[in-house]
Amino acid sequence: MRIIETPKAPLPAGHYSQAVVANGLVFVAGVLPIVPIAPDMPVQERRMPEGLEAQARQVFDNLRHVLEAAGTGLDGLINVQVFIPDVALWPSLDAAYREILGSHKPARTVVPCGPLHYGALIEVNAVAVAGQPAQQEPKQA
């Protein structure tokens, strides 16, 4: 088992790892659309982009950095769980997700769950294949 941590994505504010590699898979903890300006920035000073589309781009950029630290990329994703505060956001989320991941279609679950931490409009956790070379990274918006 290998613990993954990168300052290129927001570091955990609690007792957990950004990701863990085990048995050929990368298990990524919940990723928020926080802009990783400074790893030691106090929680109350963290900022997020405005709007779901911008937050989706930020959350997948953060996810990409965590996956790259584990030796893989967005093209290694096999399962993605997306949490949104309101099911009415689903169409906008799906459009942003399609643009970000392009033709890559990992298994996905969208969970309308009520308010997210810090007022975020999206949170993602994921499972990816470890150590796969990023042959063609999905289009970044």
Question: How many beta strands in the DSSP annotation?
Answer: 6
Fraction of helical residues: 10-25%
Q: N-to-C SSE series?
A: EEEHEHEE
What is the first-to-last residue Cα distance? 33 Å
The mean pLDDT is: 90
The whole-angstrom Rg is 14 Å
* Poorly predicted regions: 133-137
Proportion of residues in β-strands: 15-25%
Biggest sheet features: 6 strands, mixed
Total number of helical segments? Answer: 2
| Large-scale geometry | globular
Secondary-structure class: alpha+beta
Strand order within the widest beta sheet: 1-2-3-6-4-5
Model description:
With 141 residues, the chain is of the alpha+beta class. It contains two helices and six strands. Helix 2 links the parallel strand 4 and strand 5. The longest helix has 18 residues. The radius of gyration is 14 Å and the shape is globular. About 4% of the residues have low confidence.
